[in-house]
Amino acid sequence: MPEFLAGLGVIRFRFLLQAVTCVALGVALAIRQVGSQIALWDVLAVLIGAIAAHAAVNALNEYADFRSGLDQQTRRTAFSGGSGTLPAQPGLAPVALWLGIGSLALCAASGAWLLWRDPTLALRLGPLGLLGLLLVVAYTPWVTRRPWLCLVAPGLGFGPLMVLGTQLALAGRVDGTGLALSLVPFALCNNLLLLNQFPDIEADRRVGRRTLPMVLGCARCVRLLWLQWFATYLLLVAVVMAGVAPMAVLLGCATLPLAVRAGWLLRGEPCRERALLPAMGLNVAISVTTPLLVAIGLSLG
Asked: What is its main location (predicted)?
């Protein structure tokens, strides 16, 4: 048991809040459609499945990075470079692998329970769930070697798959508002992983990864960060102006100053540690807080 508890570090608990806020957005969308008809047990199953999926990709990524030698070469920061659990205690590698497999199984079980509760969802929710599981398994060995796919994979997982999957599981259908607002975590989670790749360029190159900072360089990737940040805030304004979301959704724009500050820090020399680390912290705050604020706005509206 002590060995198992020590190995839990590979799950990276403090980062699992991203899954919670994306589920919160999906729940708010579902409540907007069907109100109090949503069962608490269904919400709990969705939340467990989302957290388990996030934990699985973290654990499997840490295991693969330890086996490839990447963890021993990266310059670890508070936001990138792994948890440091396996380099410090190599004997925990099998624990990390089984934590990843077990979390993946728990995610699949939560999805199966939702389908058992409502078999009519099988043809709609099933493909989303299978794509999510495939993304978790393929991320480290396959996705990280394809730069543009590596850019959009995190956003796809936390945005359309997690948000729309939650809405579909709880409300039985998705709508235009859900499709539009799922693009908020899509863009922000893309940015989250993109910026976190900046410190690891050389280490990633040595183990065969191909990320966009390698291909385009950091300066061009900063422009991509700006593009996705401001596309997010323009989208929030657009859905309100189009009348498909309440005015309170603009609460999500409260993180705009954080994006401006992060972009300003990255000007000139984006890979300079003095600017990069605070920008990475702001980027985490933006990606976690914005979906939650949008969810609160939907609820108030």
From this structure: membrane
Q: Which two tokens stand for residue 67?
A: 């086996």
Element containing residue 141 per DSSP (H, E) = none
State how far the Cα of 286 lies from the Cα of 299, in Å rounded to an integer.
20
Is the pTM above the cut of 0.90? yes
Render pLDDT for 219-240 as a digit per residue (tens, 0 to 9). 899 999 999 999 999 999 999 9
| Residues 153-169 as b or e (16 or more Cβ within 10 Å = b) | bbbbbbbbbbbbbbbbb
Token pair of 207 as six digits: 């183990």
| Predicted pLDDT at 1 | 57
| 89 phi, psi to nearest 5 deg | -135, 80
Amino acid letter, residue 170: L
Is the CA virtual torsion 257, 258, 259, 265 positive or negative? Answer: positive
Nearest to 200 by CA among 61, 52, 10, 13: 61
Comparing C-alpha atoms, which of 54, 30, 25 is closest to residue 40?
30
**What's the alpha-carbon Rg for the chain, to the nearest Å?**
19
The pLDDT tens digits of the residues spanning 166-221 come to 999 999 999 999 999 999 999 999 999 999 999 989 999 999 999 999 999 998 99
Neighbours of 173 (CB within 10 A): 12
Return d(Cα 265, Cα 269) in angstroms, integer: 9
